[in-house]
Design goal:
The protein folds into two domains: 2-70 and 325-441, Aspartate Aminotransferase, domain 1 (Alpha-Beta Complex), CATH 3.90.1150; 73-323, Type I PLP-dependent aspartate aminotransferase-like (Major domain) (Aspartate Aminotransferase, domain 2). Helix 12 packs parallel to helix 15 (415-433) and helix 14 packs across helix 15 (415-433). It has helices spanning 2-12, 73-82, 94-106, 119-134, 177-180, 191-201, 226-237, 256-260, 272-275, 287-290, 308-323, 326-347, 374-377, 382-394, 415-433; strands spanning 40-44, 47-50, 55-58, 112-116, 138-142, 183-186, 205-210, 240-245, 267-270, 281-285, 352-357, 360-365, 397-398, 407-408. A seven-stranded mixed β-sheet has the order 4-10-9-8-7-5-6, with helices on both faces. The chain is of the alpha/beta class. The chain is globular, with a radius of gyration of 22 Å. It starts with a helix and ends in a 19-residue tail after the last helix. It contains 15 helices and 14 strands. The structure holds 4'-deoxy-4'-aminopyridoxal-5'-phosphate. 4'-deoxy-4'-aminopyridoxal-5'-phosphate (PMP) binds at residues 63, 118-120, 123, 146-148, 211, 215-216, 244, 246-247, 271.
Length: 452
C-alpha cells in the first residue's frame, strides 16, 4: 500500500480528512485493519486496481451503482457517442422523455418525475414536495436509515454508540437544532412504535421516509407486512409515504423493492443503479403531489439536472436491464455466495447470519437469529468483520471494511470470480477468526460471537 499511503499523505494537505466524502474514511466510526484509504487507479468489469498494482474482485461497486460492471462497454460507447453533441444546454432534450418512459415502465408509481444528479438531491426534493402537498412540516425517519447529507435527514443515521440509546441525534455538526424539532425517529420494523408515534403526531407529519430494505445497515429486510403497515398508516393519517430506493431501485429487480413487496409509495427516489456510475437520480410519484412543482409553488432546479450525458447512460443501462438476463445472473451469483459463505461459517462453528437479497446482502457475526433494526445490528461483531474484510482484501477480494455496507454483485461478475471469492473466503477463515499481533498474541476479542 506504499503508493496509496504516499497519496493519502498528500491528500491530507488538500482535503479535510484526506478524502472527498466522509464515507471513504471510517476510522473513527468503524474498525479498520488497513493502514490508509486505498487509491484506485482503474476499474473494469468486476475488477478494480489500486495504485500499488493490486487487483481485486470488487463487491463494493461504488456503494452499489455499478450494476452492470465497471466501464460497461455498451454504456461507455453510448455516452461517448453523445458527448460530442454537448453536455449541458439548460434547455430540454428529447432523451429526457425517452428515459422517463423507461423509468415509468419499471416503476409505474412514478406518474410524474424529475431528474436530478444525486440521491441527496432526490430525497431533499421529495421531502419538500411532501411538505408542500400536505401543508405539514415534520418527517418521520428510521434509526440507521441514510437518505443523503442534507439537513432534514441528518439524524440518527450512524448512531453506533449505545450511550445515545434511541435519542434523536444529529449526524453532523452544523445542522441547526431547530431542524431536529421537525424530525421523528423510530426503530424500523416496530409496528406498534410507528403507529403510536403517528397517532400522536400525525397532524404535523408530512411524510414517512424509509429505505424499503436497509441498504445502509447490512441489508436488513422488512418484516412481513411492515411496509404495508406503513402504507396503511400513511393513508389513515394523510401522510406521504416516500420510498427511498436510491440503493434498491433497479438493483433488487427492475421494479425495485416496491414491486418486490407490492407496496405503492406516494413518492420514490432512485439513483445509483440507474446510471451504472454516471451521476443521475430521479424523484417522482403521484401526479397530484408532483404537480406541486412549478413557479410560485415548489422549487426544484439544477444546472446539471437531466443532463444528456447521464441520461444517455441511464437509457442504455435500462435497455440492458430490460433486455439481458441481468437479474437472473445477479440472483444466481448472490444466492450461491450467500449459501456458501453461510455453509463455511457453519462448518467452522461460527455463529452468524447471512441476510438481505442476492443482489445486495451481508454476513454478520452474531448469536442472534435475526437482525430487525439498527440497534440489534450494533450487537454484531464488526471488528471480526473488519478482520475478515482485511484478510479477503489481501487475497484479492474487496468488501467494504464497514460491515454495515452490503456486498453487491454485478452482471460482469463471472463464475471464476465466484470460485475465486469462495476460495479466498475459505482461506481467510483461520487468519480472520484468530487475528494475531506480530508477536503471535491472539487478539480475538469477541464475546458477541460463539466460535466453537
Ligand atoms: N438514499 C440512500 C438510501 C442512499 O443509500 C444514499 C447514498 N448511499 C443516498 C440516499 C444519497 O445518495 P448520494 O450519495 O447520491 O447523494
Amino acid at each position: 500500500m506504499e503508493n496509496s499511503m504516499r497519496l493519502f499523505m498528500e491528500s491530507l494537505k488538500l482535503f479535510p480528512a484526506g478524502v472527498n466524502s466522509n464515507a471513504r474514511i471510517r476510522r473513527e466510526m468503524c474498525p479498520s485493519f488497513a493502514p490508509c484509504t486505498l487509491f484506485i487507479k482503474r476499474a473494469h468489469g468486476s475488477h478494480i486496481w489500486d495504485v500499488d498494482g493490486n487487483k481485486y474482485i470488487d463487491y463494493r461497486l461504488g456503494y452499489g451503482p455499478v450494476i452492470l460492471g465497471h466501464s460497461y462497454e455498451a454504456v461507455r460507447q453510448a455516452v461517448h457517442r453523445h458527448d460530442k453533441d454537448g453536455l449541458v444546454f439548460a434547455l430540454e432534450n428529447e432523451i429526457e422523455i425517452k428515459v422517463a418512459h423507461k423509468v415509468q415502465k419499471c416503476l409505474p408509481s412514478m406518474e410524474l418525475m424529475r431528474f436530478a444528479n444525486s440521491g441527496t438531491e432526490a430525497t431533499m426534493a421529495a421531502i419538500r414536495v411532501a411538505r408542500a402537498f400536505t401543508g405539514k412540516e415534520k418527517i418521520m425517519k428510521f434509526h440507521g436509515h441514510y437518505h443523503g447529507w442534507h439537513d432534514s435527514v441528518m439524524f440518527s443515521t450512524e448512531q453506533k454508540h449505545k450511550k445515545y440509546g434511541r435519542k434523536i441525534m444529529p449526524a453532523s455538526l452544523g445542522v441547526p437544532s431547530e431542524i431536529k424539532k421537525l424530525v421523528l425517529v423510530e426503530d424500523w420494523n416496530n409496528f406498534a412504535a410507528v403507529e403510536k408515534t403517528l397517532k400522536r403526531h400525525h397532524r404535523n407529519v408530512a411524510a414517512i421516509i424509509t429505505e424499503p430494505i436497509m441498504g445502509n445497515a447490512a441489508a436488513i429486510m422488512p418484516h412481513r407486512g411492515y411496509l404495508k403497515h406503513l402504507r396503511e398508516l400513511c393513508d389513515r393519517y394523510d401522510v406521504a409515504l416516500i420510498f427511498d430506493e436510491v440503493k434498491t431501485g433497479f438493483r433488487v429487480g427492475l421494479g425495485g423493492a416496491q414491486k418486490m413487496f407490492r407496496v405503492r409509495p406516494d413518492l420514490t427516489t432512485v439513483a445509483k443503479s440507474l446510471g451504472n456510475g454516471y451521476p443521475i437520480a430521479a424523484f417522482g410519484g403521484r401526479e397530484d403531489m408532483m404537480n406541486m412543482i412549478r413557479p410560485g409553488k415548489v422549487a426544484h432546479g439544477g444546472t446539471y439536472s437531466a443532463n444528456p450525458v447521464s441520461l444517455t447512460a441511464a437509457s442504455t443501462v435500462l435497455d440492458v436491464l430490460m433486455k439481458k438476463p441481468v437479474f437472473k445472473r445477479l440472483n444466481w451469483y448472490g444466492r450461491r455466495m450467500m449459501a456458501e459463505i453461510g455453509d463455511m461459517l457453519s462448518a467452522h462453528g461460527v455463529s452468524h447470519i447471512v441476510q438481505g437479497v442476492p443482489e445486495m446482502f451481508q454476513f454478520l457475526f452474531t448469536r442472534r437469529e435475526e437482525i430487525s433494526n439498527y440497534n440489534e445490528l450494533q450487537e454484531c461483531d464488526m471488528i471480526l468483520y473488519a478482520a475478515f474484510q482485511y484478510e479477503m482484501m489481501r487475497r484479492g477480494v474487496m468488501f467494504d471494511e464497514d460491515g454495515e455496507e452490503p456486498i453487491y454483485v454485478s452482471y460482469s461478475h463471472s463464475k471464476k470470480d465466484l470460485e475465486d471469492t469462495l476460495d479466498a473466503f475459505e482461506d481467510s477463515l483461520h487468519d480472520a477468526l484468530i487475528p494475531r499481533t506480530p508477536v503471535g498474541i491472539d487478539t480475538r476479542l469477541s464475546e458477541k460471537v460463539k466460535i466453537l
